[in-house]
Design a protein that fits this description.
Blueprint lengths: L13 E12 L2 E12 L3 E5 L6 H8 L7 E6 L2 E2 L5 H5 L2 E4 L12 H11 L4 H14 L15 H13 L5 E5 L7 H18 L2 E5 L3 H6 L2 E6 L2 E6 L1 H4 L3 H6 L6 H11 L10 H14 L2 H7 L1
Parallel strand pairs: 3-8, 3-9, 6-7, 7-8
Antiparallel strand pairs: 1-2, 1-4, 4-5, 9-10
Helix pairs in contact: 3-4, 3-5, 4-5, 5-6
Length: about 300
């Protein structure tokens, strides 16, 4: 029986509704009767081991794949062939490799490409280019060829091109998997700012613990079904769930466990600041003599 999410945002209208979704590939059932409701403005992270159905789920939401059975509704509109263009225009999709998304000879051309397909006036196109280039710190890179950019710059450029089309839903499918820790943190900071400032509905598929922890909600898939659905801080401390999804335990959680073995029990948490506060409070409550003797 999966651990289910207590929807604090249930009063908000759902941006995405999946009802009994099943996806069959040949004789293999990839997704088995999935039902998920994602309120508008929520950040949902999806985790699971390879083959659990994460990317299939993302492609179904974007209309890149068609469900074998069940219904998908985006902002109240059924995802059907006659509505596919309207639905896709509301969803931005970022792939793991930004090189798969570049079309233009410069970053500026690449951002402009989607806007030109929307038949926007030239003045509005230029305004959006400048707005999203500034937002993602790309202004000085607008006339650079995408191939000359670093991994983090490429991913920000791909993100700018998608955001400039002003989707209401943004899906990132392992978008940080090819980045080193510095660029991964940089992109995560961008996502956190966008989530707060623009109230985007975010869906991020990842194995990165920091990225999973940053979300409002975590859905863990296993063998095509929902294994758990809840708050990241509640799920990522459960060893059996981490093992099932082949996730490494957060460092701060391992620290809490090691401290307990040393006789310092501050509970378990994946929140670094919370753990630091508890440690500081513990040290502050002890006398200097006690601290010295403990050393």
């Amino acid at each position: 029986m999966p651990l289910m999410y207590n929807q604090d945002d249930k009063h908000k209208p759902p941006a995405i509704q999946l009802n009994n979704i099943r996806f069959q590939r040949g004789s293999h059932t990839v997704l088995k009767q999935l039902s998920i409701s994602i309120p508008a403005g929520q950040w949902v992270a999806i985790a699971g081991c390879n083959g659990s159905g994460k990317s299939t789920l993302a492609r179904l939401i974007n209309g890149l794949l068609q469900a074998s059975s069940g219904k998908i509704i985006i902002h109240g509109q059924p995802l059907q062939q006659e509505h596919i263009y309207d639905v896709r225009s509301q969803i931005g999709y970022i792939f793991a490799s930004p090189d798969d998304q570049f079309i233009g000879l410069t970053v500026r051309d690449d951002i402009a490409f989607g806007l030109e397909n929307l038949c926007l006036p030239r003045e509005q196109i230029e305004q959006r280019i400048q707005t999203y280039a500034k937002l993602l710190h790309l202004t000085e890179l607008l006339d650079r060829h995408p191939a000359t950019l670093s991994g983090g710059q490429k991913q920000r450029a791909a993100l700018a091109a998608v955001l400039a089309m002003q989707p209401s839903v943004l899906i990132l499918d392992e978008a940080t998997s090819m980045l080193d820790s510095h660029f991964r943190d940089q992109l995560l900071q961008c996502l956190q700012a966008l989530h707060v400032e623009q109230q985007l509905t975010l869906i991020t598929i990842s194995h990165d613990i920091k990225e999973l922890s940053a979300a409002d909600r975590l859905i863990m898939l296993h063998d095509g079904v929902i294994l758990a659905d809840g708050k990241p801080e509640d799920l990522l401390i459960q060893q059996q769930l981490l093992k099932a999804c082949r996730l490494e335990a957060p460092y701060v959680l391992e620290l809490c466990k090691e401290l307990r073995l040393q006789g310092i029990d501050i509970g378990e948490s994946i929140n670094e600041q919370e753990v630091l506060n508890k440690l500081w409070a513990l040290l502050s409550s002890r006398s200097p003599i006690a601290i010295k003797s403990a050393r």
